[in-house]
């Protein structure tokens, strides 16, 4: 199998490339930086600029699967101009890939596996979301993800199998949300947000990359939730990180209005609650290596013997 990856130099992309190479898969990748172009037998870089629709169509040569991870980070202040960049980066990426497939008439691509996000699900403390949920969150994120998935579905016109992976909170020491959550805890300033009862559907970065490859290898199509079997509340997440780091928590939860002052509209992501199911991908035969938050954190921080809470080794402990 030969894979074309967008966003290959990002957090998830780097893990995905490493797993592809471990399995002997060739990787082509697209980059907007000519300085990052590499030309190795199993790791070939190609230049593109989705903002203007420019792409080297040779990136598709001998490729059977496209894995799309590209998109501007949502972890910046949501000014009007930046919100446009978040949406445009996702739509422009897929439009540019679509054009490349149209121009490279003898390509061998059979499937597209595109990143998506659980932010599409309505904010709720009570609901347990599976992939057939039709509701869309009434927020900027809900709108972005809905547009993102609709654009990915257009690739069905090429006869491709299209899969969307709705990614939750990615757990990694190398970047993303975890180091930002852990930082104040390390300096004795950690605290949960709001009530702390909002659900955080998370996934270990290794499991997420494995899931993308599993979907590609098995020619799956449709929507799959990229989350572990055991979502946790924000209170529990913060406590587990503090336990792994062996730091106390003594500050009260941080009120919503404080974070709205600090972060503006972007603070929404700290308080939104989505309890999301992983049952669909598990029924396809995918097995998680990191099912529980404490075990996942032990792996990430290379510690052991810290998981003592009853139920930490039970799958779906928080599922109805």
From TrEMBL:
Q: Which Gene3D superfamilies match?
A: NAD(P)-binding Rossmann-like Domain
Q: Where is the NAD-dependent epimerase/dehydratase domain?
A: 3-219
Q: Which residues form the signal peptide?
A: none
Name the Pfam families on file.
DUF1731, Epimerase
Q: Where is the DUF1731 domain?
A: 254-300
Q: Which family does it belong to?
A: Belongs to the NAD(P)-dependent epimerase/dehydratase family. SDR39U1 subfamily.
What name does this protein carry?
TIGR01777 family oxidoreductase
């Amino acid at each position: 199998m030969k894979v074309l990856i967008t966003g290959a130099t990002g957090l998830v992309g780097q893990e995905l490339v490493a797993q592809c190479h471990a399995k002997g898969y060739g990787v082509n990748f697209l980059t907007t930086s000519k300085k990052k172009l590499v030309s190795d037998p199993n790791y070939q870089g190609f230049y593109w600029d989705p903002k203007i629709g420019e792409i080297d169509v040779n990136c598709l040569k001998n490729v059977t699967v496209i894995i799309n991870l590209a998109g501007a980070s949502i972890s910046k202040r949501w000014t009007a101009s930046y919100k446009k960049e978040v949406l445009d980066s996702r739509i422009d990426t897929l439009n540019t890939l679509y054009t490349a497939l149209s121009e490279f008439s003898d390509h061998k691509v059979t499937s597209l596996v595109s990143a998506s996000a659980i932010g599409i699900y309505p904010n709720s403390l009570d609901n347990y979301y599976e992939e057939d949920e039709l509701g869309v969150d009434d927020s900027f994120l809900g709108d972005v993800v809905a547009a993102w998935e609709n654009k990915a579905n257009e690739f069905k016109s090429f006869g491709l199998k299209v899969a969307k992976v709705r990614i939750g909170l990615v757990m990694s020491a190398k970047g993303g949300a975890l180091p930002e959550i852990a930082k104040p805890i390390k300096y004795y300033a950690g605290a949960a947000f709001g009530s702390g009862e909002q659900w955080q559907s998370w996934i270990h970065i290794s499991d997420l990359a494995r899931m993308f490859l599993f979907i590609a290898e098995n020619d799956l199509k449709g929507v799959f939730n990229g989350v572990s079997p055991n979502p946790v509340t924000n209170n529990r997440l913060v406590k587990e990180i503090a336990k792994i780091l062996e730091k106390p928590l003594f500050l009260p939860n941080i009120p919503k209005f404080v974070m709205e002052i600090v972060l503006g509209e972007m603070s929404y992501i700290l308080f939104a609650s989505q309890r999301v199911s992983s049952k669909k991908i598990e029924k396809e035969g995918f097995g998680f290596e990191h099912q529980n938050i404490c075990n996942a954190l032990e792996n990430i921080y290379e510690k052991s013997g810290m998981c003592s809470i009853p139920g930490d080794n039970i799958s779906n402990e928080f599922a109805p």
